[in-house]
Automatic annotation (TrEMBL):
This is Flavin-containing monooxygenase. Belongs to the FAD-binding monooxygenase family. Its cofactor is FAD. Its EC number is 1.14.13.-. GO terms for molecular function: monooxygenase activity. It comes from Actinomycetospora rhizophila. Transmembrane segments: none annotated. Keywords: FAD, Flavoprotein, Monooxygenase, Oxidoreductase. Signal peptide: none annotated.
């Protein structure tokens, strides 16, 4: 059987992969492409995670696609609603017909002579493509992070990680301990105290606190604008307003951390019972936005604490016992169910090995170009969203850039584009972010540089100008003409 060759292959059918494919459908009609998805469903995070209360931790008017705005006034949407939004988007643009499920790419090899990637897919015939788009996110789908928990083998109850949640798990009327302080933990705790199947009591056990900010479950401005203005006007205005809010909050937090810390403390104090020990449980050791801030809709976490259905304990684990957890302070937490909301394991490119002209790629030896390509790696773009704003904001910009890039290759008769590292640019960590899941893997990631185009802006306003207006043929990019005979990718792209 002959090897199938495609113009573009997109790896991953999550929010990034579906959105990028829609850009190809809209702006590069005729491009031969496929979306390869390792699992048997699209949606990525939103079809994988099934834990109680699963929802966005970014507002949906910026997490939604720019080309297909989120139409509801709901700001923090539940997981099933987001998954349905992704499904409907894929169907509307015909992307659903281009997705190949059960296709896990384990190795991608670039051949400069042939000007193409060869993708190895266990149990499938290899594919080749001229341009490879890695849209598989940056964490392992099959395994969450669990730290060493002393004595856990003695525990007689149930232990579950949110990433591998058992939908049959019955916690009704039981004592639950959720270990963690991030977005997943602050989502789980109030969710498990609600409804007919509510737990008897939920304890959030954290080693150190995070910043928690209450925002409205619905966007009041979006409601007003949608009531009085046409959708074509209301949606962009809502999105622009929310982008401005995100950028302002981040920039003010970075420049005036003590001021923002004080505001957050006052808001948290007002949301909790009188005399609550805010400084122990809601006063992190780091400054605002040095790690991602946890958003809770309508203060649901605070309301659960006020009702007495939930509590937060800030302490460290000495050991698990048969009936719960003994803490370093000597206190014992009785538990029937323990949820280890302890984070993610980072994994670039879905775990696929990258090989360039026979040499295995060592990511720490590469430098990120515009936060989307790697030095010395031809015809490959990866999608990684913002750590301080909605993921999709960056993905949309990169997808638009890819369209311009492919058009440039076609019009100029070029077959290869590879960023060439500038030896005068100093190295910096790939992500300047204090989250544990980043710091555990920072040495396994590419580097970024200290100046453009090698520095990651992590600022939508800056990137919007750079990625929409900058030349694709800048000095950092080396191009090679199309080989003869010309690969189909460059002929068809556009």
């Amino acid at each position: 059987m002959s090897t199938e060759h495609l113009d573009v292959v997109i790896v991953g059918a999550g929010l990034s992969g579906v959105g990028t494919a829609c850009h190809l459908e809209r702006d590069l009609p005729g491009t031969r492409y496929a979306v390869l998805e390792a699992r048997e469903d699209l949606g990525g995070t939103w079809s994988l995670f099934r834990y109680p209360g699963i929802r966005s931790d970014s507002d949906m008017h910026t997490l939604g696609y720019r080309f297909r705005p989120w139409s509801s006034a709901t700001a923090l949407a539940d997981g099933p609603s987001i998954l349905e939004y992704v499904r409907e988007t894929a169907q509307e643009f015909g992307v659903d017909e281009k997705i190949r499920y059960g296709h896990r790419v384990t190795r991608a090899s670039w051949d400069s002579d042939a000007q193409r990637w060869t993708l190895e897919i266990p149990g499938r015939t290899p594919l080749t493509c001229s341009f490879l788009l890695m849209c598989s996110g940056y964490y392992r789908y099959d395994q969450g992070y669990t730290p060493d928990l002393p004595g856990i083998e003695r525990f007689g109850g149930t232990v579950v990680h949110p990433q591998l949640w058992d939908p049959e798990l019955d916690y009704a009327g039981k004592r639950v301990v959720v270990i963690g302080s991030g977005a997943t933990a602050v989502t789980l705790v109030p969710a498990m105290t609600q409804g007919d199947g509510a737990a008897a009591h939920v304890t959030q056990l954290q080693r150190s606190p995070s910043y928690v900010l209450s925002i409205g479950r619905t966007d009041a401005v979006a409601e007003v604008l949608s009531r009085w203005l046409p959708k074509a006007v209301a949606d962009p205005l809502t999105r622009a307003k929310n982008i401005a809010q995100i950028i302002t909050l981040y920039q003010v937090s970075q420049r005036f951390p003590r001021f923002v810390r004080g505001l957050l403390r006052k808001a948290t104090q007002a949301a909790l019972p009188a005399g609550y020990d805010v400084d122990t449980h809601f006063n992190p050791r780091y400054d605002p936005w040095d790690q991602r801030m946890c958003m809770v809709p309508d203060g649901d976490l605070f309301r659960a604490i006020r009702r007495g259905d939930a509590e937060i304990v800030t302490d460290t684990i000495e050991t698990f016992t048969e009936t719960g957890i003994r803490l370093a302070s000597g206190r014992e937490l009785e538990a029937d169910v323990v949820v280890t909301a302890t984070g993610l394991n980072l994994q670039m490119f879905g775990g696929a090995e990258l090989v360039v002209d026979g040499e295995a790629l060592h990511l720490p030896d590469t430098m990120a170009y515009k936060g989307m390509m790697l030095s010395g790696v031809p015809n490959l773009v990866y999608m990684i969203g913002y750590t301080n704003a909605s993921w999709t904001l960056k993905v949309d910009l990169v997808a638009e850039y890819v369209v311009r890039f492919l058009r440039h290759l076609r019009r100029s008769g070029l077959g290869v584009a590879v960023p060439e590292r500038d030896p005068s640019v100093e190295e910096a960590p790939f992500l300047d972010f204090g989250a544990g899941y980043v710091q555990r893997s920072i040495d396994e990631l590419p580097k970024q540089g200290t100046r453009a185009p090698w520095r990651l802006a992590m600022n939508y306003a800056v990137d919007a100008v750079s990625l929409r207006r900058s030349r694709v043929d800048d000095e950092a990019m080396r191009f090679v003409p199309v080989a003869t005979p010309a690969p189909a990718a460059v002929r068809a792209a556009g």
